[in-house]
Every structure is written in structure tokens, then in C-alpha cells.
DNA sequence: ATGCGACCGGGACGATCGTCCCAGTCGGCG
DNA sequence: CGCCGACTGGGACGATCGTCCCGGTCGCAT
């Protein structure tokens, strides 16, 4: 019997997943939590084999909750539930040790299959989610210097070169030159495009 | 018997809502659709009293679907399902004629209550959703001119003044002046901050 | 040791930007 | 009708920006 813990702040989604899983053999939903903190607590007390974890939650972020659960028991398999379009968070969850992903619009069979795969130690990567991850990695490669990344971040915060220079304790000329280099690498023609790029790239 | 149609692209959410509603008396889920277009079709064929409609959907937007359904039969009550933080879409759905809102993290009793209220012709406004609406109106007030909004949008696309001027068929001097005015209104000191503001404000 | 790359910056130049002040047209409203 | 506000732009000025080209200091790897 595969013991499953659901963590999602949407009661309707929890109910839906539960009914999807309840009709499958060999699975049982042993608990469900409405938030990240509760999820961590319940993971400790209910000892699930697989956790289905939402990424966006009010109290404790899905990635953080995943980290906490795995820190307490690294035998648990965490499968992350995600909507489209949050590449940065998908990567973050991977880093946190999530075993796989499931898109929220998955069909019941997919969900069941993913839970079984996770329990077996396989990585149930939704093909579409996998594409997200790959494309995210493909889009990251602008091999930016640490300084360049730093400056881009500050640009994306709306700061002028002088302010950035002051904050970093360097010359505003250096900021210019470095930003210029960064722009060339990421394909931006000016600071505004650079700022927008940084935003989209989760370099917020 | 109140006939309910579910429209949401997440199978799990549909299943959850269905199980939530199935335990209540006097309600029956007569159909469920995975997309806006299908929702419009099923609304015509299954003649529901109340439609629970997701806002974010791949094919046909929730607001658009609402409009279409009401155009075919204005006796239907559409209750919109929304997550937090999409003020613009909430307002759009209101314009489209939605009767009320429900946040996706609503408890089962809330959902049932909302459906009953909608069937009665009441407006089941989730108190938190209502706050969203109000705060949306409070946050919008940068009373920007149509032109200013237009230019901000183009700035947020990363265009330079000259390009914007060309695209709008006006002088780049006018673009400057207009953007300058817009910046003052939204509290931005330069185009970069303006672009980021426009992004955040859904003026993408 | 020699080279490479990150990091730091000055000089210089033109482009772009932000701002203020002014002035014209046009449509709506009292 | 006159007034106002949106929209349009020119002039002018200083500030900021983007770019190229130069020089320097480190640390790290070959």
C-alpha cells in the first residue's frame, strides 16, 4: 500500500486528487494538508511514501516545505504539482530534492501513474514539465559573470548606474562597462530590456 | 434541483468540486468541461442553472466564455473561480456579467453556499475576492491617459522612444514628453522603472 | 612563469533620455 | 461661447547612458 500525503491550499484540489487516487488499487491518501507548515508536520506524523506538493502556497513555499520534509526523512518521495509558466520555481523545487512533477491539468491516470512511479523511485516527469525544465536550462546559459548578474539584478530593481555604483562601492563607470557587457550577452540593447530580461529570468 | 456545469482545465479541480457538490442536497453536476469552448457548448446542451467557471484557461478565456454563455442564455448564473492576485481579470469577468466569485481555496461549504446563492439570484462574492476588487480599484487610480498607457506598454516591451514614435506615427519628442508625464504619475524616475511598473500592473 | 579571465576604472564621444517651457489643434462641457 | 484637457510637437539644456579603447590588479591554471 502506497501511503500518500496531499499538500495544497485549495480544498477543491485536495478533494479532487483524493477522489482520483481513491479509485486506484494499492494507494491510500493518509492525510492532506492545507499549507506548507502543516504539510511538514503531517509528513512527520503520517509517514507517507509519496507527497503530492503544491508549489504556490501562502505560508510555506512548496520548495521550502520539500526541503524540510526531506531533511526529516529522505526516504520520502516528493512530487511537485505545478501550473504552467513558473520555470524558476520548478528549478527551485528540483534543487530542493523533489522527485518529479505533475502539471495541475494532468488526467487521473497520469496522477496515479506518477504516484506509483515515485513510490518505485522513478522520476515521474511530466513530459511537458520536462520541456519547461529543459527550455529553462537552455535559456539560462548566458554565461554571465557574478558581477554582471549582480548588476542586472539591481538594474531590474530600477536603480540608476550611480546608485548601483554606490551600493556596490565601485565606480559608476565600471557599472556602465559591466552592464554593457551583460547586455551584449543577453541580447539586450539597453538597461530597460536588460531589466525586463532579468525579471523574466527569475533574476528578480 | 440546481443543475451545475463545471468549467476548468484541471481535471483534479473538476473532480474535487464535483465531490464537494455531490454530497450536498438539491445540487447536481450535470456536466463538466475542460476548456472555455467546450464550456460554451455544454452550457447550451446541458442547460445548467449555475456555471462554475475557471478564469485561466488555455483555449477560451473565462471572461470570454462567460460572455458567450450569457449571450446564448442570460438566465444562467456564472460564478467565477479565481486564484489570488489577478485583479484585472476579476474586473474583466465582472464586466462579462459574472454573478459572483469564488476563491479556489474556498472550503466545501463555501462552494455549496455560493452555488445556492447564485441559483437564487444572489451574488456570492467571496469577502476576500471583494477586497481584491476594491483594492484593485484603489490601486488603479494612476489616472493615465490612453496614450500614456499605450506608450508605457511599448516601453515595457523594451522599445526605445524612436521606435515607439515610429510605431505610433508621432514625433519622438512627443513620446518623451508623454512618457515623462506618465512617469510622474506612476512614481517612476525613468523608463526602466516605468517598464517594470507596467509589467507588474498587468499592463504587459 | 606566462597567460587568461574576472574585476576595476579612466577618457572620450555620440546617442538617448528626462525635463521644462512654450504653443498649436481638437473635442467635450458648462 | 469660453474653458479645459488630451494630444501633438519644437527648443534647449543637462544628465544619463552605451560603447570603444585603453590601462591596471588580482587569482588561477597550464
UniProtKB/TrEMBL annotation, chains A, B:
It holds the Pfam family Response_reg. The modification 4-aspartylphosphate is found at residue 54. GO terms for biological process: phosphorelay signal transduction system; regulation of DNA-templated transcription. Residues 3-119 form the Response regulatory domain. Keywords: DNA-binding, Phosphoprotein. It comes from the Bacteria. InterPro entries: CheY-like_superfamily, NreC/VraR/RcsB-like_REC, Sig_transdc_resp-reg_C-effctor, Sig_transdc_resp-reg_receiver, Tscrpt_reg_LuxR_C, WalR-like. PROSITE patterns: HTH_LUXR_2 (PS50043), RESPONSE_REGULATORY (PS50110). GO terms for molecular function: DNA binding. Residues 137-202 form the HTH luxR-type domain. The keyword Phosphoprotein applies. PANTHER family: TWO-COMPONENT RESPONSE REGULATOR. This is Response regulator transcription factor. It comes from Solirubrobacter phytolaccae.
Amino acid at each position: 500500500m502506497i501511503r500518500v500525503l496531499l499538500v495544497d491550499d485549495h480544498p477543491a484540489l485536495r478533494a479532487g486528487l483524493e477522489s482520483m487516487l481513491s479509485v486506484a488499487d494499492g494507494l491510500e491518501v493518509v492525510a492532506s494538508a492545507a499549507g506548507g507548515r502543516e504539510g511538514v508536520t503531517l509528513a512527520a506524523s503520517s509517514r507517507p511514501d509519496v507527497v503530492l506538493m503544491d508549489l504556490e502556497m501562502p505560508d510555506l513555499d512548496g520548495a521550502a516545505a520539500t526541503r524540510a520534509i526531506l531533511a526529516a526523512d529522505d526516504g520520502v518521495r516528493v512530487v511537485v504539482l505545478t501550473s504552467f509558466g513558473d520555470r524558476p520555481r520548478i528549478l527551485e523545487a528540483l534543487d530542493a530534492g523533489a522527485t518529479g512533477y505533475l502539471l495541475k491539468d494532468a488526467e487521473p491516470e497520469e496522477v496515479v501513474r506518477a504516484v506509483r512511479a515515485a513510490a518505485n523511485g522513478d522520476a515521474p516527469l511530466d513530459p511537458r514539465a520536462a520541456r519547461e525544465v529543459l527550455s529553462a536550462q537552455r535559456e539560462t546559459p548566458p554565461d554571465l559573470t557574478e558581477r554582471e548578474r549582480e548588476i542586472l539584478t539591481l538594474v531590474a530593481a530600477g536603480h540608476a548606474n550611480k546608485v548601483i555604483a554606490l551600493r556596490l562601492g565601485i565606480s559608476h563607470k565600471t557599472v556602465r562597462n559591466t552592464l554593457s557587457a551583460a547586455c551584449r550577452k543577453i541580447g539586450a540593447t539597453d538597461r530597460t530590456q536588460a531589466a525586463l530580461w532579468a525579471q523574466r529570468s527569475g533574476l528578480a
